C-alpha cells in the first residue's frame, strides 16, 4: 500500500520543502542536492500534514492498494522513484557522499533544519570518536604509576647514607662518592630477604623484592677542557688552570687518568646512542666518559672504589649521570631513573633527578587486547576524518582555513597520525631492546630514549584529548546558549590583545627589576625566569612589594573586559528571533513516533482545542505556548499561525479564527474520506482474493473435499475477523465525526 504524500508550505524558508514519508526518511530533503520535485498544490490548503487515523492488520500486505485521491502528485513521485532506481551505482555514490556529509559539504545556508540535522549527525559520530579516544588515553595510564614513582624516589633520592648524606643534600664531590658507595649500591642490589634468606633469583636484583633491575647501571660524566676560559693577567702566575662553564664546543674529548677503559676514554653521542639532557645549569650532550657497573653489589663497589681512588672526578667535571631501569611485572610498568649531579664552575654540586614510569609493553591482559580494538577503531575514525577534511578543503579551497574549527580539526588529525606512527615505532623498538637484553643480561639497558619519547607521547595525547573536548563546541554552537562563550571571546579578542600587550610590558619590566635588585641574594630571583615572588632587600624589597600589588588591578581589568562583552552578547542573543533548535527536532521525532503508535492525539485536534477557548482575539504567544505544551515544534506553530494572520499583527481576530476552523473541518473531511476509501478497498481486495481461491479449488476430487472444507472454514473465519476489526474502526470514526454531516453522507455512499 502506498501512503499519501502530503506537504505543507512553511513561511520560515523561501525554499520549497517536501517530506518523503513513503521512503521512510522522516526528514526534510534539500532540493539543491537531491533533486526533489516541486510539490503539487491542492485545492484545500493545509495547516499540518495529515496523518492516518488508524492502522490495521492488513497494512503490511504489499499487494493491496487503495484508490488514489491525488493521482497527479503520485505520478510525479512515481517518476522520481523510477529515476532513483535507475542505477545502483548512483545510489551507492550518493550513500558514500552522505557518509561524509557535513555542514561544509552541504548547502545549509538557507535550510536551517538541514543544518541542525547535519550538525546533530556530526555530533553523534564525533561523540563515538571521543569516547574511543578517551579509552585509549586512559588505557595507557594507571593510578599505580604514582606509587611506583614514589617508592623509587624514597629509595634513591631521600634515603640517607651512614654519614647522613642523601642525594638531595649532595653539595660536594666528596658527598657524591659517599652517596654512590652507600645509598645507591644499597638500593640497586637486593638479593636476600630481610632475614638474610636468599631471594633465589640468580644474579638478578629485585628492588623491593618486586622490581627487576634491567641489565647493569651506567655512570657517565662530561668534562670541559682546560684553558677553555682566559685568566686575567694579574692572576696568571697564581692561577694556571681555567675551566669554563659547560658548553658543548668546549667539551673535553681527550683521554685521561688510567687511559685504558671506557671510564677514561671519550665516546661520542653517536657511539653511545645517547641524547641531550636539559639540566639545571645547561643542556648536556649524550656523549662523555662512562663506566658500566656489575651484576653484583660487591663487584660494583670495587668499580666505584677504583674510580674514586684514581680521581675520576676533577676540575673539568661539569656533570655526572647515573642511569638504570627497572621493570615490575605485577603492574607491567617500566621505571627509568636518571640521577644527575652538576658541578658548576663556581664549585659545589647541584643534584637533580628524573624518574619516568611508563608502560612500554602494551598488550598482555584482556583489557590490553580490548585497547587493541579501540586502536583499530581509532585508526578508522582518523581515516574517516582525513577524507572528510579533504572533501571540505576541495570545496572551500583556501577559505577553509579561515575557520578556527577547521584548523583545530587539522591539528587533531596531525597529532593522531603522529601518535599512530609512534605506537608502531615504540612496539618495534621495545621488542628489539628486550631481545638484546635477554641475550646479554650484563649490558646496560638504555631505555632513556624510549622513556623520554613515551612521556612526550603521553603529553601529546593529553593535549590532543584536550583539543578534542574543546571541539565539541563546534557542534553545539548553533544553540544560542552555547554560542555565548564563543561569541564573547571572538568579540573581545581585539580588546584582550591590546590588554595583553600592556600586561606583558608591565610584567617584563617587573621581572627585570626583580632580577637586577635581588638576583645575587634570593634564589627565586637568581635567574630571569624565576623573578616572580620573594622579597629580601630591606628598602628596595618594600618598594618592589608595594608596586607589584598593582598586578591584581591588571587582572581585574582583564575580567572587566570579558564581563562587559559577555553582557552585550547575551543581550543581543536574547533579542534575536528563535531559530530551529535541536529540541525542536527531538520533539518532531517524538511526535512522529508516537503518532505511529497511536499514543498521541492528532495535530488538527490540538489546534481546534486552542480555538475553542472562545476568546475574540487569540494572541500568538498564547497560541504558541499552548501548542508547545502539546509537543508541537516552533516552526510548525509559526507556519500555522501566520497562514491565517492576514494583517500580520500577531493576533487572530474572530474572523481569522473562523477561517481557520472552517479549513480544519474541511481537512478533517478529506482525511476521513481517504481513510474510509482505503479501508473499503482493502476489504474488497480481500473478499475478491478469497473468492478466487475458493473458485479454483471447486474442481478438486471428492477425496480431498474434507480438507478443502476445513480450509474454507478457516478463511471465512479469518475474513469475518478482519471485517469485524474494520467495523470497529469505522464505528470509532463515526463516534468522533458525528458533528460533520459530510462525513456521514460520504460513508453512506461508500457502503
Automatic annotation (TrEMBL):
Transmembrane segments: 123-141, 367-387, 407-428, 496-518, 716-735
Domain Polycystin cation channel PKD1/PKD2: 362-532
Molecular functions (GO terms): calcium channel activity; calcium ion binding; calcium-activated potassium channel activity; muscle alpha-actinin binding; sodium channel activity
Pfam families: PKD_channel, Polycystin_dom
InterPro entries in the record: EF-hand-dom_pair, PKD1_2_channel, PKD_2, Polycystin, Polycystin_dom, Volt_channel_dom_sf
Family: Belongs to the polycystin family.
PANTHER family: POLYCYSTIN FAMILY MEMBER, POLYCYSTIN-2-LIKE PROTEIN 1
Protein's recorded name: Polycystin 2 like 1, transient receptor potential cation channel
Organism: Astyanax mexicanus
Amino acid at each position: 500500500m502506498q501512503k499519501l504524500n502530503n506537504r505543507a508550505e512553511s513561511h520560515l524558508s523561501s525554499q520549497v520543502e517536501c517530506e518523503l514519508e513513503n521512503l521512510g526518511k522522516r526528514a526534510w530533503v534539500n532540493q539543491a542536492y537531491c533533486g526533489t520535485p516541486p510539490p503539487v498544490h491542492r485545492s484545500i490548503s493545509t495547516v499540518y500534514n495529515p496523518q492516518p487515523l488508524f492502522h490495521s492488520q492488513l497494512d503490511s500486505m504489499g499487494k493491496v492498494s487503495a484508490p488514489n485521491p491525488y493521482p497527479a502528485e503520485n505520478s510525479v513521485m512515481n517518476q522520481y522513484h523510477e529515476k532513483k532506481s535507475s542505477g545502483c551505482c548512483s545510489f551507492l555514490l550518493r550513500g558514500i557522499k552522505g557518509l561524509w556529509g557535513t555542514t561544509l559539504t552541504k548547502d545549509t545556508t538557507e535550510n536551517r533544519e538541514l543544518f541542525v540535522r547535519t550538525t546533530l549527525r556530526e555530533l553523534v559520530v564525533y561523540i563515538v570518536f571521543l569516547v574511543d579516544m578517551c579509552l585509549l588515553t586512559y588505557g595507557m595510564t594507571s593510578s599505580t604509576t604514582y606509587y611506583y614513582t614514589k617508592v623509587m624516589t624514597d629509595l634513591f633520592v631521600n634515603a640517607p647514607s651512614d654519614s647522613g648524606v642523601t642525594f638531595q643534600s649532595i653539595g660536594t664531590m666528596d658527598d657524591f662518592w659517599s652517596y654512590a658507595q652507600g645509598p645507591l649500591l644499597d638500593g640497586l642490589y637486593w638479593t636476600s630477604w630481610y632475614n638474610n634468606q636468599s631471594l633465589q633469583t640468580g644474579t638478578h636484583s629485585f628492588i623491593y623484592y618486586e622490581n627487576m633491575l634491567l641489565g647493569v647501571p651506567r655512570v657517565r660524566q662530561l668534562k670541559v677542557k682546560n684553558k677553555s676560559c682566559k685568566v686575567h693577567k694579574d692572576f696568571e702566575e697564581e692561577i694556571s688552570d681555567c675551566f669554563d662553564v659547560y658548553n658543548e664546543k668546549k667539551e673535553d674529548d681527550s683521554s685521561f687518568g688510567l687511559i685504558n677503559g671506557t671510564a677514561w676514554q671519550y665516546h661520542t653521542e653517536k657511539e653511545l646512542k645517547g641524547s641531550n639532557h636539559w639540566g639545571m645549569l645547561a643542556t648536556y650532550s649524550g656523549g662523555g666518559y662512562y663506566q658500566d657497573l656489575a651484576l653484583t653489589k660487591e663487584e660494583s663497589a670495587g668499580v666505584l672504589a677504583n674510580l674514586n681512588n684514581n680521581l675520576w672526578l676533577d676540575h673539568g667535571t661539569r656533570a655526572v649521570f647515573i642511569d638504570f631501569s627497572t621493570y615490575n611485572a605485577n603492574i607491567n610498568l617500566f621505571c627509568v631513573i636518571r640521577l644527575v649531579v652538576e658541578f658548576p664552575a663556581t664549585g659545589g654540586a647541584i643534584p637533580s633527578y628524573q624518574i619516568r614510569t611508563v608502560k612500554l609493553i602494551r598488550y598482555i591482559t584482556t583489557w590490553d587486547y580490548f585497547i587493541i580494538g579501540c586502536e583499530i577503531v581509532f585508526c578508522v575514525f582518523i581515516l574517516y576524518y582525513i577524507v572528510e577534511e579533504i572533501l571540505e578543503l576541495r570545496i572551500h579551497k583556501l577559505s577553509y582555513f579561515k575557520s578556527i574549527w577547521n584548523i583545530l580539526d587539522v591539528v587533531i588529525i596531525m597529532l593522531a597520525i603522529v601518535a599512530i606512527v609512534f605506537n608502531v615505532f615504540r612496539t618495534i623498538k621495545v621488542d628489539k631492546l628486550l631481545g638484546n637484553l635477554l641475550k646479554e643480561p650484563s649490558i646496560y639497558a638504555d631505555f632513556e630514549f624510549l622513556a623520554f619519547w613515551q612521556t612526550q607521547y603521553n603529553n601529546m595525547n593529553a593535549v590532543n584529548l584536550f583539543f578534542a573536548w574543546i571541539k565539541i563546541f563546534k557542534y553545539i554552537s548553533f544553540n544560542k546558549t552555547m554560542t555565548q562563550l564563543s561569541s564573547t571571546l571572538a568579540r573581545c579578542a581585539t580588546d584582550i590583545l591590546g590588554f595583553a600587550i600592556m600586561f606583558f610590558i608591565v610584567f617584563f619590566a617587573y621581572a627585570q627589576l626583580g632580577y637586577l635588585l635581588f638576583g645575587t641574594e634570593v634564589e627565586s630571583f637568581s635567574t630571569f625566569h624565576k623573578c616572580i615572588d620573594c622579597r629580601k632587600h630591606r628598602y628596595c624589597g618594600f618598594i618592589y612589594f608595594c608596586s607589584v600589588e598593582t598586578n591584581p588591578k591588571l587582572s581585574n581589568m582583564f575580567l572587566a573586559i570579558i564581563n562587559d562583552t559577555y553582557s552585550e552578547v547575551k543581550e543581543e542573543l536574547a533579542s534575536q528571533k528563535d531559530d530551529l533548535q535541536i529540541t525542536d527536532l527531538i520533539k518532531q521525532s517524538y511526535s512522529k513516533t508516537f503518532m505511529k503508535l497511536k499514543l498521541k492525539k492528532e495535530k488538527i485536534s490540538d489546534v481546534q482545542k486552542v480555538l475553542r477557548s472562545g476568546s475574540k482575539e487569540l494572541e500568538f504567544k498564547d497560541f504558541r505556548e499552548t501548542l508547545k505544551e502539546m509537543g508541537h515544534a516552533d516552526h510548525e506553530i509559526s507556519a500555522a499561525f501566520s497562514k491565517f494572520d492576514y494583517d500580520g499583527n500577531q493576533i487572530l481576530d474572530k474572523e481569522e479564527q473562523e477561517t481557520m476552523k472552517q479549513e480544519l473541518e474541511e481537512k478533517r473531511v478529506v482525511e476521513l474520506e481517504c481513510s474510509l476509501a482505503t479501508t473499503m478497498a482493502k476489504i474488497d481486495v480481500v473478499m475478491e482474493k478469497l473468492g478466487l481461491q475458493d473458485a479454483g479449488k471447486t474442481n478438486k476430487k471428492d477425496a480431498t473435499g474434507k480438507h478443502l472444507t476445513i480450509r474454507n472454514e478457516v478463511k471465512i473465519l479469518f475474513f469475518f475477523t478482519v471485517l469485524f476489526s474494520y467495523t470497529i474502526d469505522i464505528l470509532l470514526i463515526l463516534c468522533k465525526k458525528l458533528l460533520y454531516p459530510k462525513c456521514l453522507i460520504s460513508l453512506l455512499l461508500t457502503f
